[in-house]
Amino acid sequence: MSDTVRDAPVSADDAAVLQRLSTLDRFLPVWIVLAMVAGLLLGRLVPGLDEALAAVEMGSVSLPIAVGLLVMMYPVLAKVRYDELGHVTADRRLLATSIVLNWLVGPALMFALAWLLLPDLPAYRTGLIVVGLARCIAMVLIWNDLACGDREAAAVLVAVNAVFQILAFAALGWFYLEVLPGWLGLGDGSADGGLDVSVWHIAGSVLVFLGIPLVAGFLTRTLGERARGREWYETRLLPRIGPAALWGLLFTIVVLFALQGDTITSRPLDVARIALPLLAYFALMWGGSMLLTRALGFDYERATAVSFTAAGNNFELAIAVAIGVFGVTSGQALAGVVGPLIEVPVLVGLVYVSLWARRFFTTAPGRTA
Asked: Where are the alpha helices (DSSP H) in 46-150?
């Protein structure tokens, strides 16, 4: 993504931040809507396209989507200053806040919203709970970067999510789908179906979507700085590879909606029902996280990293798990597919809200806008 905002001097008028975004970044919602429409139309108008795109998989996800995600994440991870990660990992309050929001508050909130708003639709309810358990390890880096959040903090928090995802996903699925409903008198969870998913299945997803671009980004920065220095790396090389993140994002969205276009367009009322708890979830998680981090005295950059990490979800993993456990035509899978349909435009909108909200936070020492 563009570094336009970071390189500009701080203005007394925080609203000017939006005007200092590059043209590509400023109109990102437009490009994303067009990509979603293009994907839906392709899925509906080109016979057999979804089967062709899904024919080859990488980490239980369609190969074109996996390629798009790798292209999308590589430039963002190449921007991270890895020699500064020690300052982030030493901030125990930051790490504790993120872990609580992601692994206690997030799943519990999605569970509550799913039961409150979809009490009569157990399959969709289960699908949403699975989405709530899949914490973001991919697109959050894009949203954080666009909102001028702390890249190093975001990289560390995403890595923490990846570790917790491997260790806790299956156990939390069992708890929220089978144990907690019985404790609350909502049933024994049998109508929802158990979540029988392998730890290795989750580890493979994390390795593909985080491990590969993380290693590539680290090597690019290490070798680039060693060969030509940091100034050349950040002023000459990064601007050249940065736009690939946007193209990778748009390509991923086109392919994702081409794969699921028929499912989405053929069941509009179901999509609307599923969308309501998702909208509430993203608004509450992001807004609540921003208010909490401000109350805790976080600067804007770290508050943004924590908030977008808490609000985002790993829909790639959620869709793969829902399809693998419940089947491609299941209601659980449809709920997973609707996730990015709602998440992408909502979190893009929250990028703009976040930039506006900068005025209410302090800025980290040594950082520009």
From this structure: 49-53, 63-79, 85-89, 92-100, 106-117, 122-133, 140-146
| Phi and psi based region of residue 187 (left: phi greater than 0; alpha: psi -120 to 50; beta: remaining) | left
What DSSP letter does each residue of 253-319 carry, written as one string? HHHHHHHHHHHHHH-HHHHHHHHHHHHHHHHHHHHHHHHHHHHTT--HHHHHHHHHHHH-B-HHHHH
Task: Tell me, rounded to whole angstroms, the distance of Cα 223 from its chain centroid.
Answer: 28
Q: Is 15 helix (H, G, I), strand (E, B) or coil?
A: coil
- Beta pairing partners, 57: 62
Distance of CA 125 to the CA centre of its chain: 20
Model-level pTM? 0.75
For the stretch 141-186, pLDDT in tens is 888 988 989 988 998 898 888 788 877 888 888 888 888 888 988 8
